Amino acid sequence: MQEQKLYGRRDGAVGHLVFNNPAKLNAVSLDMWESFSGILKEFDADPTIRCLVVSGAGGKAFVSGADISKFESERANAEAQVRYDAISKEGYESLYNFSKPTIAKISGYCIGGGMNLAACCDLRYCNEGARFGVPAAKLGLGYGFLRIERFSRIVGLPRAMEFLFTAKQYSSKEAHDMGLVHGVAADGELDAMVDGITGAIAQNAPLTIALAKAAAREIAKPESQQDHARLEKMAEACFDSDDFKEGRRAFMEKRRPVFKGK
What we know:
The chain is an alpha/beta fold and 262 residues long. Helix content is 49%, strand content 16%. The chain has helices at 30-45, 71-74, 78-96, 113-120, 136-139, 145-155, 157-166, 172-177, 190-203, 206-219, 228-239, 242-252, and strands at residues 6-11, 14-19, 51-56, 61-63, 102-106, 109-111, 123-127, 131-133, 169-171, 183-185. The chain has a six-stranded mixed β-sheet with strand order 1-2-3-5-7-10, with helices on both faces. A four-stranded mixed β-sheet has the order 4-6-8-9. Strand 2, helix 1 and strand 3 form a beta-alpha-beta unit. It starts with 5 loop residues before the first strand and ends in a 10-residue tail after the last helix.
């Protein structure tokens, strides 16, 4: 039986989306993109899942970009590229718009499309051996507005231009210094670092976290498009929730609250 090149699994309250193409450093092909959004929809609809970790199998790469060996069959001309772009864009947007916190766990290479995936996540952590780059200029392919804009928002436009113009690779320290990643773990300790983050998220109030994420997404929009009324309703729902009552009781009783997202 052929192994799935992209699969989802769960570990308690944490969903995992795993790129499983280690022989090609987890390069992404069209068939992987075609199953991407469906996995995310299942996790997003599951109220017992509190957050999502995106990672690559094998330890040598998070995602090394698109599978170049498939370009002739999947992206050989403008028409084929339009189809590929539509399917991959759906994947990127489903990750960016995932309603729960998303964490990119980056071990090894995070290149090209891997950078786009990481930029769609809320939090990013890597090991010391991680390498980051956008080699589009070495391949002659074009990046659309959303990919550049989203990446620029994280590292700043001047640094994003350096990535794109030079197509050079950056170390984990450089990535941390520029704010691309939130933390760098010693090799062999990345799982523990990310487990600590997901554990903290899973214990906190889901409605409060959902509001924080929704607010972050609204802030990223032009002011004229921001839906403040939606955020106010979400805030009111927090104060009317059983979780708020539980939080108050737990504080007075000096114990850890048990939140249910209701």
